[in-house]
Amino acid sequence: MLIELRQVQRSFLLGRTTVPGLRSTSLMIGPGEFVAILGPSGSGKSTLMNVIGLLDHPTGGALLLDGVDCAKLDRNKVALIRNRRIGLVFQAYHLLPRQTVIENVELPLTYAGVRRVERRRRATEAIERVRLGHRIHHLPALLSGGEQQRAAIARAIVSNPDVLLADEPTGALDSVTGREIVGVLLALNHEGRTVVMVTHDEALARHASRVVTMRDGQVVADTAQRSPRERSPWEAVP
Question: How many domains does the chain have?
């Protein structure tokens, strides 16, 4: 199993009050799955995503990645695993405004010490995979919202992570562009990449192979779905 949560809890201290974000949540995600985490605001879905993405440390339970309990590792080891094995995409694109698309996409490789020629090759390949090659030398301000999100996705996959986590990746986009971004995620999943997408949109969640529904910090449903209809993975989802 690629990802396994065993009775994971995450609570927050607000003043003198302890507020539960996750309540004894158990979940397993296998290699190559496309899982949508669905729920309204305050249901705990983003907290769950942050725990899976090793951005937040659980206050109880076990979080296993390929059998290694990351909840027991120190911060340096957790950061190393996150940088090498997990790609993160957010609603806000977090692109550096004075860097071109390819310079933004290269950043994870720069931090990892990859030589310039190699990181330029890998960044170009990632940009082409999200069909943004015609914007490779543009600054973010010259891109549409959908193009900025494609650049963010390219940056997330440039290190070839095991899993791509997308937290409300269509939240800042209109419905048509949002469906195009889900089409990008579907295409990457069709290539074999594990994708976990947080969304409040039931229509978009239907395109995942599995939907995990959350409410009040708990998983209340975990439903396998039929595969999406046969189509080019780059076609905007209906």
Answer: 1
Is 138 among the domain residues? yes
Residue 24 covered by a domain: yes
pLDDT tens for residues 6-48? 999 999 888 888 888 899 999 999 999 999 999 988 899 999 9
Residue 75 lies in a domain: yes
Sequence-distant contacts of 171-175: CB under 8 A, at least 24 apart: 171/91, 172/91, 172/92, 172/93, 172/145, 173/145, 173/146, 173/149, 174/145
Residue 236 has pLDDT above 70, yes or no: no
Cα–Cα distance, 108 to 114 (Å, whole number): 9
**Mean pLDDT for the chain overall:** 90
CATH number at residue 166: 3.40.50.300
Domain boundaries, position 26: 3-224
pTM of the model: 0.90
Query: Which among 62, 29, 1 has a CA at the least distance from the CA of 165?
Result: 29
Question: Residue 225: which H helix or E strand, with range?
Answer: none
**Distance in angstroms (rounded) separating the CA atoms of residues 223 and 43:** 17
Has residue 150 got a pLDDT over 70? yes
233 within domain boundaries: no
Long-range contacts from 104-112, C-beta under 8 angstroms, 24+ separation: 104/140, 104/151, 104/155, 105/151, 105/154, 105/155, 105/158, 106/158, 107/155, 108/83, 108/155, 108/158, 108/159, 109/158, 109/159, 111/83, 112/83, 112/159
